[in-house]
Amino acid sequence: MRVHASFFVAITMLMSAGAGMAQQAASAAKTAPASGAATPAPDLTPVANPVTTYLKAGVARYQKNVVAGAEAMPAEKYGFKPSPEMNSYGHLMMHIAEANNTFCSKISGQTAPDVKLAETDPKDKLVGAVKDSFAYCAAALEKVDDSKLGEQIVLFGNRPISRGGALVALGGSWTDHYAAQAIYLRLNGILPPTAQPEKK
After folding, report:
1. Are 72 and 108 in contact (CB under 8 A)?
2. Nearest in space to 128 (alpha carbons), one of 105, 94, 103
3. pLDDT higher for 47 or 79?
4. pLDDT one-digit tens code per residue, 19-74
5. Contact 67, 175 (CB under 8 A)
């Protein structure tokens, strides 16, 4: 699996976004009106299976945003490349579907869907493959818990990695892929799903 050329730009964007969110939270805390009522303490009850619980929650969140990003790009722009040496948007969609199927198959021990994709496939096929890959991940990870995080599995040819490491890599791939999508969309004058104004 190749690392996208936009990876480092995406990381910079995410770090900037994180800093901005922290500043907004601090500003909101300062300007919040005093109601006189005590703020309820956060629930700090220990979480069972913290790693897999977190990843499972991420499936729905990233499915919503990544699929919306796939749908937002016009079909005629699926061949768009920010520069000639970079992958096309269609390739990115193909890669997302294949990465999801591979990671979730290896982590769960289930057989990956037998899907044949090409970056030149029509938009509707690639969008459908992305949707299906997230649905597959949700089903495949349903019974996965933290009891086998230390077990070694083989990923991407013959690379050994712990199941916990693969889960962390899966979450990282969602972040990387959505950040790359956001760049491609913005370069075409399209706001990414998470940058869209709230509907009133």
Report:
1. no
2. 94
3. 79
4. 333 333 344 444 444 556 788 999 999 989 999 999 999 999 999 999 999 999 99
5. no
Contact 4, 180 (CB under 8 A): yes
Contact 126, 93 (CB under 8 A): yes
Q: How far is CA 123 from CA 3, 72, 93, 116, 147, in A?
A: 22, 11, 9, 14, 39
Assigned token pair, 182: 């956001």
At 129-156, the pLDDT tens digits run 999 999 999 999 999 999 999 999 999 8
The answer for residues whose C-beta is within 8 angstroms of residue 200's C-beta and 6 or more apart is: none
Q: Please report where in the chains the tokens 């818990």 appear, as a residue.
A: 145
Tokens of 104: 């979730």
Distance CA 139, CA 10 (A): 29
Higher pLDDT, 67 or 199: 67
8 Å CB contact between 133 and 97: yes
Enter the tokens of residue 60.
Answer: 């729905």
DSSP state of 178: H
